[in-house]
Structures are given as structure tokens and as C-alpha cells.
Design goal:
By secondary structure, the chain is of the alpha+beta class. Helix content is 27%, strand content 34%. The strands form two sheets. Strands 2-1-6 form a three-stranded mixed sheet, covered by helices on one side. A three-stranded antiparallel sheet has the order 4-3-5, with no helix packed on it. The longest helix is centred in the first third of the chain and has 20 residues, at 2-21.
Length: 115
């Protein structure tokens, strides 16, 4: 389950950012995490892992807010932007596979709320 290591890294990054930005911060109360539809990370599993990984950290009482990002690609063949629900999907306009992913593989911290 790679989501556990991703979640632990996310919490460590949030803590590190808070310590550098304001050393007086003692508690993280919320984390907004953007997860793209094509990121290969399962939001439900990240939520479960967060409940376990946050123990004994600055984020122990934090709420995790998941922001889902749609998969978007540019079809080189028909020159149209399309939404992708899964990797390997064909363009719905021309049935081509010459696609360039432009969004949807994100896995990033968007915001951190502190006390």
C-alpha cells in the first residue's frame, strides 16, 4: 500500500513547512490535498492512512480535505482537449491514442490550516 508512505510524507512536508514558516505553530488543524483522477492514489485509502499516520504528529487532530482533480489531455491528432477518466483511454472524438496529459496526475498539498 503505497498510500501509507505518501500520507506519511504529506504530513512530514506539512509539518516541515509550518516549522519553517512560523516556528510558533504547534498544531495543524486542516490539510487540503489535491488528488488527480489519474494520480494512481486512492483518495479513500489516503483518508484511512491519514487517520493512522497523523497520530503523535502536529496533525494529530487535523481534518483532511480531499480536492479531486479531473484528468485532462490534449489530443494531438484532432487538436481537442478531452477529459480522461482512466489512463489508456482513447480520444472520444477521433478514437486516437496520441494524447498528452495536461492535468489529473496531481498529488499535492493545496493548503494547511494551523493554530
Amino acid at each position: 500500500m503505497h498510500e501509507m508512505s505518501l500520507t506519511m510524507s504529506m504530513i512530514e512536508l506539512a509539518e516541515e513547512h509550518c516549522r519553517k514558516a512560523d516556528p510558533s505553530v504547534k498544531k495543524i488543524t486542516g490539510i487540503w490535498l489535491e488528488i488527480g483522477a489519474l494520480s494512481c492514489a486512492e483518495p479513500e485509502t489516503i483518508e484511512y492512512c491519514f487517520d493512522v499516520a497523523r497520530r503523535t504528529t502536529m496533525a494529530e487532530d487535523a481534518k483532511l480535505h480531499i480536492v479531486r482533480a479531473k484528468g485532462v489531455a490534449w489530443c494531438v491528432d484532432c487538436e481537442k482537449e478531452i477529459q480522461l477518466e482512466v489512463r489508456g483511454m482513447a480520444c472520444p472524438h477521433c478514437n486516437g491514442f496520441n494524447l498528452r496529459l495536461t492535468a489529473g496526475d496531481e498529488l499535492r498539498i493545496k493548503d494547511i490550516e494551523v493554530e
